[in-house]
Amino acid sequence: MRETYARKPVTDPHIMVAAIGDSKGDQAPLQMTQFEADIRLADGVRSLWLEGNGQGNDGESYGLLPLALALKTSCDAIEVQGRRGVAFTFGDEPLQLSYTRAEIERVLGVRIERPQMTAAEIYALAARNWDIFHVVVKEGSYVRDQGGLRRVVESFKTVLPERIIELDDYRLMPEVVVSTLQVIGGADKAAVAASWGGNASKTIGAAIRNLPAVQDRPSAGGLARY
Predict the structure, then answer these.
(1) Nearest 5°: phi and psi at 70?
(2) Where are the beta strands (DSSP E) in the chain?
(3) Do the Cβ atoms of 75 and 14 come closer than 8 Å?
(4) Which class for 61: exposed (0-12), middle (13-18), buried (19 or more C-beta within 10 A)?
(5) What pLDDT shows up at residue 25?
(6) How far is CA 22 from the centre of its chain?
(7) What is the C-alpha end-to-end distance of the chain, expressed in Å?
(8) Which numeric CATH code is attached to 2-169?
(9) Where are the domains of the chain?
(10) Which residues pair with 89 in a beta bridge?
């Protein structure tokens, strides 16, 4: 958070942290703090419960977060100021490409009419107000398996074709978030990467090299209805 404030890639940042698991079997596959602008965020993070289970189904329920952002969050910056939110997910497993009515109702308390929602539908719904990126943690065990990186990237290409960030060093997660915010705010990618110095510059440069320029477009405003 200190670096976010120091570099000022966004003004008056309010940050929420979420823990994402597997809605196919975890008890609490999505947990979210409040949006905070100060140290109260740390109190929320300490309350997150990391289950540590693995369902053995080649995927995690990353799509729950954009669905919650679309249907369950209220942000003045979006609803009053017309600004867009930015969300990052991190992980080393593929994206689950569909979510059943029962999963969505159990996790979010939202009732949908159809039997399931696809990840493509969910990310399109969230894109009304949010720019979403996924950071592939290449040091994760799934990615290190033969063909793992390809499977992860291909799953996210269906919903975030130009917003997949491959990160070689998990210790640089904060730096890659701040760098992405700077780039989508109009900063030069090479200059942003070089600003970190040392080995971090090379790693950050590789991670953000494929990021597109994000158009300065307003949010749709308000909660989505589905």
Answers:
(1) -75, -40
(2) 18-20, 30-32, 85-91, 98-100, 116-118, 130-137, 164-167
(3) yes
(4) buried
(5) 86
(6) 15
(7) 33
(8) 3.40.50
(9) 2-169
(10) 134
Q: How many residues does the chain have?
A: 226
Phi-psi group of 113: left, alpha or beta (phi > 0 → left; psi -120 to 50 → alpha; rest → beta) = alpha
Structure-token match 């070689």, residue found: 168
At 19-72, the pLDDT tens digits run 999 999 899 999 999 999 999 999 999 999 888 766 667 799 999 999 999 999
pLDDT tens-digit series, residues 80-95 = 989 999 999 999 999 9
Phi, psi angle pair for 182, to nearest 5°? -65, -45
The answer to whether 85 and 219 have CB atoms below 8 angstroms apart is yes
Residues 6+ apart with CB under 8 A from 130: 66, 69, 70, 84, 85, 86, 87, 219
pLDDT over 90 at 4, yes or no? no
